[in-house]
Every structure is written in C-alpha cells, then in structure tokens.
Specification:
By secondary structure, this protein is an all-alpha fold. About 70% of the residues lie in helices and about 0% in strands. The chain contains 2 helices and no strands. The chain has helices at about 5-30, 40-50. It is elongated.
C-alpha cells in the first residue's frame, strides 16, 4: 500500500469519527461534546475529506 493510500485511509477514518461525533451530539441534543460547539467540527470535517 502506497503512502497516499495510507493517508487517505487515515483521513477517511478521522472524517467518519468526526461525523459520528456530530451526529451523536445532534441526536442526543448535546450542543458541545468536546468543549466547543459541534458545528465547529464541520469546519474541520469538510476540508479533511478533500485529501
């Protein structure tokens, strides 16, 4: 497996875990899981999917 494949795999796993955190916060009604609003995670999630 090449380096780019490894980076894409790590990026995919990170993206899915951030998406799961946002969705779980939305479902449970908790606005802040990590000390800041869950919507801020979307700003990190969107560019990370471009790798």
């Amino acid at each position: 497996m090449g380096n780019k494949d490894k980076i894409n795999k790590i990026s995919g796993i990170a993206s899915l875990s951030m998406l799961a955190a946002v969705l779980s916060g939305y479902i449970t009604g908790i606005d802040s899981l990590f000390g800041f609003p869950n919507a801020i995670l979307l700003y990190v999630l969107m560019p990370s999917t471009l790798f």
